[in-house]
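Try it yourself: sequence plus pyridoxal-5'-phosphate, in.
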Amino acid sequence: MEQLPTWSSQQGLQNQATGDWAAFLRTYPTYASTTPLDELRAQEYSRLDRLGQVYLDYTGGGLYADCQLRNHQELLSSHVFGNPHSHNPTSLAMTQWVERARAYVLEFFNADPDEYEAIFTLNASGALKLVGEAYPFVPKGHYALLFDNHNSVNGIREFARAKGAQVTYIPVDAPDLRINPAHLERALALGTPGIPKLFAYPAQSNYSGVQHPLELVEIAQAQGWDVLVDCAAFAPTNRMDLQQWKPDYVPLSFYKMFGYPTGAGVLLARKSALTRLHRPWYAGGTITIASVQGNGYYLAEGAAAFEDGTVNYLNLPAVEIGLRHLVNAGIEMIHTRVLCLTGWLLERLTAMRHSNGRPLVRVHGPNTLEARGGTLTLTFFDPEGYIFDEHRVEELANLENISVRTGCFCNPGAGEIAHGLTPEIMAEFFKDNHGLSFEELRQLMQVRYGKSINAVRISVGLASNFADVQRFLDFAQGFIDKSTASIGSSEPTNRRCSVDAGA
Ligand SMILES: Cc1ncc(COP(=O)(O)O)c(C=O)c1O
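Structure, out:
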């Protein structure tokens, strides 16, 4: 088996010296305004360069700055904190920090505290489940959602169906994977006045990086929909301003924004929309009183009614620390840098050709910077048009300490459209209800339909720099004029979509 050339960590610098850096700056002059982020990386994320890691999986999870850890540890070691459900001094001290964090989350998203509640959850999925299980779906009610959604948004359809509501998927169109306007219009016209209906979409796709218009919030609300905007993939590199846009429900995970802590997310909910939710149960912390003999309970008001049991209290101050870190870094500056790097990646990757003129990659989604973020999903082709196995591409990237993502990214709808998979084909795999792993699905798809499910996702974020993307471009360049046979195949594994491609 032929060896791929290795890409040394110096390669990016050589390229800079030989003109790519200059060409990049000429094309993306605003990158120069983001140099404070290079200083930040040198100070706070030095482990990346020290360990020679090229991190390109920000849509999977953000990276934390060293100072976030230091500040959090300092806070913990200089206080005595107890469970905030009590009323003793250590508990009251903790309550103060938890409520501070809550207030700061609202402030960060410019949400009016008279209008929005911040409900702490385990993650974005936890926030989505809170809405799904409590939304007043009824027969004749509706749940409309884009094909392009994370599985935790797709999963709400099971609550909707169980209560007899109609579920309507709105397609996105290949190749750009943007909303089909005619289907959108038809879906938003559904419903009966007075019967609850929920419309859900992501502000940014975790599959393609497409940014679906926030203007849809008002358009859908004007037609009687409650609107859920999943901001998990959007919030790390874009400003979500809840004075400008007023979705009813906004779920997100904090580790995606600033890496640490994990296990903390939020549901930002309009107070008026919160009162429409009917919780299916109560738990410790969510009630004013409950009685065994009286066989009843009264739910607490506001956020407390939705925070089951003890919140992740020691970690919540780290949420404020993380958000302040983003503010100090400058979310607009991060946004600018991410767009410059994404533009360069798109431009260079789409220009890569084998000697016979055939393209090396296909981008799943838009290949311009218009209305998109820093997530790119790619398929790699050899000179004859055969697809390089994603797992082998990942293995080779791993050898270079480049972290990419493969799999379905927990967004099957966008992937199905990008791969041209029809409802008939997909229904085949669910008719026997016998359970399949993602790997089995890939293999059966190939054997039965000759279709190769193959996607490599890269994503940039706060600490990304030109050398990172250049390292990836150099890595990609190594596939030029290679055949699929010559790069070999990956070790067979039985990967599960939910395990190896969950976020
Ligand atoms: C757009 C989007 N929504 C929701 C989620 C779920 O986030 P979590 O796994 O943190 O619950 C993700 C995770 O990648 C995501 O990208």
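One thing you can check immediately is this: The CA atoms of residues 218 and 469 lie 37 Å apart.
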